[in-house]
Write a structure and sequence with these properties.
Layout lengths: L4 H19 L7 H9 L6 H13 L8 H12 L4 H10 L11 H11 L5 H17 L1 H14 L2 H15 L3 H4 L3 H15 L5 H12 L10 H15 L10 H19 L5 H11 L8 H14 L5 H17 L11 H17 L3 H6 L17 H38 L3 H28 L38 E5 L2 E5 L6 H16 L24
Antiparallel strand pairs: 1-2
Helix pairs in contact: 1-2, 1-3, 3-4, 3-5, 4-5, 5-7, 6-7, 6-8, 7-8, 8-9, 8-11, 13-14, 14-16, 14-22, 15-17, 16-18, 17-18, 18-21, 20-21
């Protein structure tokens, strides 16, 4: 007798069980045969186990009394040392649900855990099995996958998120039917999963939601507001602000930039602006310098979409900050980055509530409302504000002169440069200088109207802020956003230069969001809120 005989005998016995079950009219009368197939899992034969992995799912529906034993046996095969057995068992898992859909959620739950497998053939089998079940019952399958994101083990939830991003999201048109109902269902699943995510994960899910038709261009205002409320929740706008909590600052900044496209579509920016006004402004001087400029950019970007009421509430704080960064003495250093942001915000807020500037800046704007306060003397405020404007303009003009000279020197150096490295370095300096020139010119364009007793506040897109790339577009042309910025200084103030690719608001948004996302890899909060946007909870940082 050869050494293969026991193995062959086991296989032969399984074939007999399978043939009898195939031929039987009433398969439920052959419980012993199905039990024999299940018991083969405990044997030593590799071939018999591979055959059992096929036969258990094939006859699963006929023996409801053996459901638990059959599932356990198939799961045991999935954990076998032999790769061939595992792959066959994985392929059989979706077949368990073919005629018993009530087990879809349970099987997808198991398959989700198997996404951690490293062998290509094994991982591919898991992917195909999950996609098969998604096509059978998309609701139950997605619920099981999102459960892993919500409460799953760390390594499993990361793999599940990658699977959703790479395999499921691209198939949404095929899988999410009926479209509106399924998009609503997935939106609710995503919202439940956002209690404990990193910033990169949050951005991934927000991008997915934004691609849904229910949030498209024809979406009603309440749908857009729903997205804003999701972003507000991640920004932690109900939390008391801690100036040393850099994670929260980064999260707030990133969320506000994510929200900008929705502000443009009519969603309310009130919670963000009110939080900035109430919590950030009082401690603004204590913030790290690099956080200040990004926060001011978020407010500047949001200011065109602020309501008149929010503008009236925020404007005094903006004037207060503006005076702080526009000293009257020419010897004091001025941060032109801050001034550009604050002047832009000032104009857009004042455009919506012009008579509020009467008491703040001493203007004489008549709207016919009691809030004009024309009978009161605010001439000292006007004198102080315009003196600050003049002092700032003098500094800007001096900086412009130096920058213009510097650009001429850069151009001359470029002509003389011999190596590609030297040319690249000079080109970078030219870009820095170009951005600095834009900042200075923007400041002058915004300060000059403010010397009038009743100035015309800028409330349109006349000013193109320095961090928004100027791109000439032609009909049908497309551009891509997201290149990093170089850093330069103007009179001691850091400025930023956008890359050559990108367009308008999108460049500002993508760059600042990416910067915030990158910054969060340095650490997390200790608020006890869970995973959050830094490396909290289960120890994952931004990536």
């Amino acid at each position: 007798m050869t050494s293969d005989s026991p193995d062959a005998a086991e296989v032969e016995k399984l074939y007999e069980f399978g043939e009898r079950l195939n031929e039987a009219q009433d398969k439920s009368q052959h419980v012993g045969d199905y039990e024999g197939i299940i018991n083969a899992v405990k044997g030593q034969s590799v071939k018999a186990k591979q055959l059992a992995a096929q036969l258990i799912p094939r006859f699963f529906k006929f023996f409801p009394g053996l459901t638990s034993k059959a599932l356990t046996a198939q799961f045991d095969l999935v954990e076998e040392d032999e790769l061939g057995i595992r792959v066959q068992a994985i392929r059989g898992l979706p077949l368990l649900c073919k005629d018993t859909p009530e087990y879809v959620s349970k099987i997808v739950d198991v398959l989700g855990q198997l996404l951690t497998y490293e062998e290509n053939i094994e991982r591919d089998a898991v992917h195909k099995a999950i996609l098969s079940l998604l096509r059978q019952d998309v609701k139950a399958s997605l619920m099981a996958l999102f459960k892993h994101i919500e409460i799953g083990m760390e390594n499993v939830r990361e793999k599940v998120i990658c699977f959703l991003k790479d395999k499921v999201f691209p198939l949404k048109a095929e899988l999410l039917k009926p479209q509106v109902e399924m998009e609503r269902y997935v939106t609710d699943l995503v919202k439940k999963s956002l209690q404990d995510v990193t910033g990169a994960e949050f951005q991934l899910f927000m991008d997915f939601l934004k691609s849904f038709s229910i949030f498209g261009n024809a979406a009603p205002p309440e749908r857009i507001q729903e997205l804003i409320e999701i972003i507000e929740g991640q920004a932690d706008l109900d939390a008391q602000f801690n100036v040393s909590d850099l994670d929260h600052i980064d999260r707030l900044t990133s969320c506000m930039y994510m929200a900008l496209p929705f502000f443009m579509r009519g969603a309310s920016s009130s919670k963000f602006l009110n939080y900035f006004n109430k919590h950030i402004v009082p401690v603004f001087d204590k913030l790290p310098e690099e956080k200040k400029v990004d926060l001011l950019k978020t407010v500047a970007g949001s200011s065109p979409y602020a309501t008149a009421q929010d503008s009236r509430q925020l404007l005094p704080s903006i004037v207060q900050l503006l005076k702080g960064y526009m000293p009257t003495r020419k010897t004091e250093e001025t941060n032109f980055n801050y001034v550009e942001c604050l002047l832009y915000t000032f104009h857009h807020l004042a455009h919506k509530t012009p008579n509020s500037t009467n008491s703040l800046c001493g203007y004489k704007i008549v709207t016919g409302q009691p809030s004009d306060r024309l009978g009161e003397d605010f001439s000292d405020n006007y004198k102080d504000f315009t003196e600050r404007l003049t002092a700032t303009e003098d500094k800007v003009r001096a900086a412009l002169k130096k920058l213009t000279q510097g650009m001429a020197e850069h151009n001359k150096a470029m002509s003389a440069a011999k190596t590609e490295e030297a040319k690249a370095n000079i080109k970078m300096e030219q870009q820095k200088t170009t951005t600095a020139l834009r900042i200075c010119n923007n400041i002058l364009a915004m300060t000059q109207p403010l010397h009038a007793k009743a100035p015309p506040f800028i409330g349109d897109n006349k000013i193109s802020l320095s961090w928004r790339e100027l791109v000439k577009t032609t009909p049908g042309s497309t551009t891509r956003a997201g290149t990093k910025r170089a850093v330069t200084t103007v009179n001691g103030a850091s400025t930023t230069s956008a890359g050559k690719k990108g367009r308008g608001e999108g460049v500002m948004q993508n760059q600042l969001v990416n910067r915030a996302l990158e910054g969060l890899s340095r650490g997390g909060r200790s608020s006890g809120r869970g995973r959050g946007w830094g490396s909290r909870g289960r120890g994952r940082g931004y990536r």
